Amino acid sequence: MTIAIKILDTSLRDDFGFSHILWVYSGRRGVHCWVCDSRARKLSNEQRAAIADYFRVYKGGENALKKVSLAGPVLHPFLARSYMDVLKTFFEDRLLLNQQLFASEERCRKILDLIPDESVASEVHDKWQGNRRSSISKEDVNATRWEQLKMTLQSGKKAQGLRRCVEEIVFSYTYPRLDMEVSKHMNHLLKAPFCIHPKTGRVCVPIDPSNCDDFDPAAVPTLSQLLGELNATGFQTDPENNWERTSLGKSISFFRTSFLHPLLKACKEELESAYSAKLQQSKNSLDW
């Protein structure tokens, strides 16, 4: 979720010029992105599909070994920025060790299957087998094997067609999976902010993209927790302020100040601008 927010939020703002963007926790394992600029809300299904396809990297069926193919002599600027600013660092500094990507034969094989040249994959595997007979600790084996893989793929005559393979591996393990159909078509139902996930009971709270690294899904309040908090303090006569006394207070304040109020202001300015333009048009038609 952190990677998805960092990559897509930056691109939606910088590449497409959208500003009224709301990120909402799904209540379980995912995240939803609401783009509420006026011109975004007026997009057709075809235009929405074009934007969704701009972000699409994963292709192929569930059984396909290789789902990421980065064609062309250089990466698209969006992909290059995503790789250098987010994906590469996240993969090497966090995923390698946290998920032990090279710690077992099975996991190593999954990565080797992403190398299209079998002779190169076999060469890398032989080097990894040598690690098993060395004194490399379990903590270091992931980083060591990753460096050996990069060096083999990015150097030598055999690597002429494999330089992009390192980037493809990083993308395969880090780039967000988008729900293309929901993103493309307007007839899909969207999960609203602050509703309750039916299985986890967690509230679908907004996420601050500037602090998404600190977001903890396990700390999101549940419906039963909120009821307990309200019962403990007693319901007030003004129901509008009851939320201030619960663990949902900060989320609602963030929703109002960072998203709702700016959006309302933009909508008001758009209506006033359209009204002024209509008045000017009417005045011009009477000036004859």
Order of helices and strands: HEEHHHHHHHHEHH
Percent of residues in β-strands: under 5%
Provide the low-confidence segments as ranges: none
Q: Which class of secondary structure composition applies to the elements?
A: mainly alpha
User: What does the radius of gyration come to?
Assistant: 25 Å
- Tally of extended strands? 3
- How many H/I helical runs? 11
Q: Measure the end-to-end span.
A: 60 Å
Strand order of the largest sheet: 2-1-3
Question: Roughly what percent helix?
Answer: 40-55%
Mean pLDDT: 88
Basic shape: flat
Main beta sheet strand tally, sense and closure: 3 strands, antiparallel
GO molecular function, one term: DNA-directed RNA polymerase activity
Organism: Zea mays
Pfam family, one: DNA_primase_S
Family: Belongs to the eukaryotic-type primase small subunit family.
